[in-house]
Write the structure tokens for this entry.
Amino acid sequence: MTRMSSPAAAARRSRGVRSGSSAVEFALVLVPLMMLLFGGIEFGRLLWTRNAMQQTAVATARCLGVHQSQCATGGVPNVTKAVTFAQTNALGLSVAIPAAGVAVTASGSCGGQTGFALVTLTLTFRTAVPKLLTSLGANPVLVTNACFPNQT
């Protein structure tokens, strides 16, 4: 003869089975949540780096265009000093741009007009979590440009 179990007994038996479900659900939600969190942080870092590079490019082009002492020697634009100025300015914004990533032209054309100081900054962005965020793991190359009219 089979014995029918009461609903209370069935609930007691199934309660033990469900005890680990919270841990499993948390583990399933944790990975996407962490990817979203770190993705947001890394995207913010990418935007910060891009903005700092643009600020540096504008400041360096202006420094070169108005022949400031940090970018000129005896009132004449000095490309070497301008590169150092750009690197120092970027480092002040927590962005390390190598000398090879700074291209400076003391007198060039911008938008079809001549007589402009031109600055181009190039930096390979390195994510802090490349294994977790494969979309940023490709190390995007950031490029910013700025020009400023030469003051003669």
Summary: Strands lie at 72-73, 76-77, 102-110, 113-124, 141-149.
